[in-house]
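Memo to structure team: turn this sequence into structure tokens by end of day. - J.P.
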Amino acid sequence: MAPFEYLLLFAAIILGLAVSDVAVSLHRLLSAGGRVRWDWIAPLAALVAFLKIVTQWWTWFGVEQIARALTFEMFLVVVLATVLLFLLAAASLPDEVHEGPVDLRAHWAAVSRRWWSLFALHWVLINGVSIWAQVQIEHARWSVLAWPYLVLPLAISLIFIRNRWFQTICLAGLVVLYLGQFFGRALSS
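Reply from structure team:
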């Protein structure tokens, strides 16, 4: 097993657990049937978390050269970011479905600040370690004005802006962003 595969395996286990958590939570909601008061934001947030996990995993395939030069500190940040991604996915949908009614709108109202905080912190860590590694390894330069860096201020604002339509539009935009990021690309490209 190559060093890259060895390191990736540890983080991949955490991501696999995150996907499993979303799937189990969704299964419990579907099994509860009519007791669930459905709302679109929590499942949309779960979809964003799922796509974020998939794109993270897909991205790792293309960074083997960078991963070979990761220092222990960099790897700790990657693992921490992966744990944050697990927490983000776990917060999306309720973990348990009790005998009474389940209100997804109330669930989102209770977890939205935490969800957006985890999203922003994950974004900072994963992009920070990527920039750190690229600068250290390849002496690359990065642009502060690049459009993906607008995601962070938007995510931070969503910690405080509780407007459901604004949050819905931003979550839908993230779905488009994550789907479009690798759409039509094969692993070999």
